[in-house]
């Protein structure tokens, strides 16, 4: 059953918020004579982050350093691949990295460096998350995984009381799970749900491509170091696990700080499959900016700390979000809408932990159920 196409946004009263905001953003780019896409700084950033992932691995292979240095290099690789995911691949697969679609296509393939397929990511993120943000039954980023509750849910049990402690371990193994299992589960689920609408032959070709990515990935990160460079398998396994834990923790925390925090809404469609809200206002109510003045953090996370701006204008490169934020805030306030910001990373993190505690409390969820 095609669950996703059955959910529609239909506000009781049409709002001029987004049309007004869009005109003001268009005026900003016209008046400043700036491109909506990436610039020289974006190119430099991409080179730095790709190097942070590739260069440490080359050093590992050709110098075979002591274990403690090796593990540090794997951590740097973890930070590098998460940086690529947030700052390079993310913009490219939204069509925002470059005006040239071919450049976006190839930079979007940098997700393969993490052993992950690009099509599944586009379906999960560009369609499900960006269209149905914080809608529990369809937003893959907060969907019920049984172990962690990321939205108010009467199904919380006794062990969810402790999720604010153990959730971060599961965040850390996310990319490892994605490489091994999630890609295949999603591929099957998206076909079954009707989201992936292709012929059997086309789906078979996609599946073979996905398997090929995994074979090459594990061949490069395990077979090459162990067989060709004689590095002990257990050392590679330990470093590989540390890399994925680093990247998984970083990626998941950054994304959760924008949606699973205090003040965000978790709308549910009515019996007719309608969410009674304007789509753009829905984005404001389900999304929060954080740490907007921290330029170093903003550089590394690809502007995902300006998540409101990203959700409203996903085809604009993140290098422009800081400039667009005052325009969005002013327009939202003009229309009487709430523009949510957590001023620092730590405030946002504490708010996420508070949400985990709240959603993991059965009595709280029963009261709202």
UniProtKB/TrEMBL annotation:
**What Pfam family is a match for this entry?**
FA_desaturase
GO BP of this protein: lipid biosynthetic process
Q: Which domain of life is it from?
A: Bacteria
- Tell me which GO cellular component terms the UniProt record holds: membrane
Is the keyword Membrane assigned to this protein? yes
Give start and end of each Fatty acid desaturase domain.
67-339
Q: Where does the chain cross the membrane?
A: 42-62, 68-86, 106-123, 164-185, 206-231, 237-258
Keyword Nucleotidyltransferase appears in the UniProt entry: no
Entry keyword set: Membrane, Transmembrane, Transmembrane helix
What GO terms are given for molecular function? oxidoreductase activity, acting on paired donors, with oxidation of a pair of donors resulting in the reduction of molecular oxygen to two molecules of water
Listed InterPro entries:
FA_desaturase_dom, Fatty_acid_desaturase
* Listed name of the protein: Fatty acid desaturase
Lineage, highest ranks first? Bacteria, Pseudomonadati, Bacteroidota, Cytophagia, Cytophagales
